[in-house]
Amino acid sequence: MSSFKRRTPSAQTALPSTRISAHNSTVLTSTGVPSVDELLGGGLPLHTSLLIHEDRFTGYAKLLLSYYLAQGIASSNAVCLATAEEEPEAVVRSLMGVVEGKVPSEMKEEEDEDISTSAVGGGIGGRRMGAVREEEDRMRIAWRYQGLPKFNTAFGGGRRDANSQQPFCNLFDLTKRMAPAMLNAAGPRMALLDVSVWAAEAEEQGGKNVYERLLEHIEGLVDEGGFRIRPNAPPPPTVLRIAIHSISSPIWGRSSTADLARFLHSLRAILRTSYATAVLTLPQTSSPQTSTLLAHLSDAVLRLDSFAGSSTPVHPAYESQYHGFLDVIKVPRVGCLGGRKGEVGMLGFKVRRKRFLVERCSLPPEGEGVGRGDEEETRRKAPVNKGGCGSGGGGSSVLDF
């Protein structure tokens, strides 16, 4: 009798609310927004970080960070929140509620009106937009534009994987708040850090700056929670989500760019050797040098350009449909030489009554207010999905560095 045994690949232990990328076999986690997950290649890969440039005068970046936190709590992940702008407990209490038993198509049917200032709050600078019906759009837009590929805004939302009892990306309702029972159950898995207290202590007593203390807390969470990758050791029962709001803002105290760079470099090393992801927001007060440095030290970078804080006039055709533009500066490239091929085109984001959406911007038919010159100018400023080599992404060609 032959002793030959067929060699089969070992089954990979599935972490809750994660899935394997079909592109490069990396483990993906959800940001809480299906359309943002699709922009990142299906989700935020494990061991990586996402940097979000905050928009001016509004708080849409904080809204995306809230989605990331809410998804972590709904997925029973460990969560670490560091902020100096407000109390971390208040941020957690204001998280959006989870929608049970619905699919994205049902959510869309319930959204007959756009978001107003009172629906989400003045904190994110929401403005009332004219309700644009889908049937009216089909009547106004020329037939040749209707054949263009549409951006999938419900990619994976609310769907469960075959090997998991939890959905990869939950559905959330901005008009509701997360249930207290869910927050209480997630309490032992949450670490809420008030950076403003550290900044005041460093100002009065000296010693370690806020970045050094934050790095020590993150390392302690990784080691004590068993999130560190070790040889021949089973993976932890869940993953760690690190959320840092408005890093390097004036409330974080006095520090140099070298301290910030050292922190980001160390955080990146921790992520590479642990079952964790991180999402950071960068305020508009940061200098261009700081923004470039942080983009280089981050795995993915998104920029929100709100119409409310735009220094240039916005055409009414876009202002009536979106709250601003979203620029994909950098996408994660883990386990591969290049990023996703092709351009994503010009993207617009809007906050509906119950959810945050990212869509491809569509121009109205020629002759309705947008001329050739405006169209060319808009396309020249359109954000593209950089897929070049190295850590940065500054050119328009895939060969530019």
Automatic annotation (TrEMBL):
Biased composition range(s): Basic and acidic residues: 369-380
GTP-binding listed as a keyword: no
Pathway: tRNA modification; 5-methoxycarbonylmethyl-2-thiouridine-tRNA biosynthesis
Coiled-coil ranges per UniProt: none
Entry keyword Cytoplasm: yes
Region (Disordered): 366-401
Family to which the UniProt record says this protein belongs: Belongs to the ELP4 family.
Name of the featured protein: Elongator complex protein 4
